[in-house]
Amino acid sequence: FGTVARSAKTEHRFYFENTFATPINVRSVRTSCGCTTPSIVTETVEPGQVGCILAVFNTATHSGARGATITVTFDKPSIAEVQLNVKGYIRSDVVFTPGEVAFGKIPEGTSRRFDVHLEYAGKSTWQVTHATSDLPFVKVGVRESLRQGGKIHYELDINLDETAPAGPIQSEITLHTNDLNIKSLSL
User: Which pLDDT score, from 0 to 100, does residue 94 have?
Assistant: First the structure.
């Protein structure tokens, strides 16, 4: 998961393909740590199709370096287990409000803007130097709105432009900082 802020909605989808001639069935998932909640997205996967296990990093209830092993149990075509590993660092000194950007349903060819507030508590010299998105049609603007001792606030303007393709979109926004120990964090 990388480095993320407290309360940021952070999840990862593990995709797998059924290479057998018969359907496979995911019986259960379990985790070694409460810092991650796994769920079965696709219970039965037909031959040649793709299934999915979702791992949600519990950033509202945990902080610091965290890691978990997710055990996936299959019961068809035979009983088997697969282990997936996740890890990340949840910063308790940075909080995003809200913890995710949800544009909702947008007509194709239109743009939409979303605002996120960032609060930092720590060194008075800390700053966000710039922000990037992993998708060319998601643009991020950063503006400092408060600096008072070790309390620093930023406003993030996140824009989905009209060139975004139709269908569900999932993007990671990365904030780059002047922090020498942890140079970036994700939303």
Answer: 86
